Fold this sequence. Notes:
50% of the residues lie in helices and 15% in strands. It has helices spanning 27-36, 39-50, 55-62, 66-79, 116-130, 134-149; strands at 20-23, 82-89, 95-101, 106-109. The strands form two sheets. The chain has a two-stranded parallel sheet with strand order 1-4. It has a two-stranded antiparallel ribbon with strand order 2-3.
Amino acid sequence: MSRLLPTQTDATVERSDTPAVLSLDDDATRDVIEALSSETAYEIFQLLNETPATPSRIAEQLDQSMQNVHYHLENLKAAGVIEVTDTCYSEKGREMSVFVVSEDPTLLFLGTEDDQPSLKRAFKSFASLLGAPSILLAAGESISQFVTAE
C-alpha cells in the first residue's frame, strides 16, 4: 500500500549569491550571535548547513531531547539563520517541519552600517569576476583590512 503523505523530503540546501551583511551596530547581529552562542545551537546550524532535517532527525543525530532541539530551532529561526523549507509526516501521520539554513548566506561584518555600501560593492565586483566561492575569500580580506587599519 502506498502512502498518501510524504515521510521524507526532497528539499536541498540552496544558497543565493548575495549574502546578508550584518554590522556591529545592527540589532540583527546581536540576535544571530545570541542564537549561535550555544554549542547545541551551533551544532544544529552546522547540521542544517549540510542537509535539511526535521526536529526528530536533528535530536537523533545530535543525541538531544526534542524539547531542547525545538528551543534552539525557534531561536535560530527568530534570528533568521534557518527557515522551514518543507513539510513531511511521521510514520504516525504527524506533520513535521523540515528546517534548512536560510537561502541568503550571512556575513558578520566588524564595522558599522556606514561602512556597508563599500563592502557590498567590493563583494559584487569580486563575485562577478571570480564567482560565488570568491565571496568568502573577499570577506576575509575586507575584514582583515578594516581590522589592521585601526
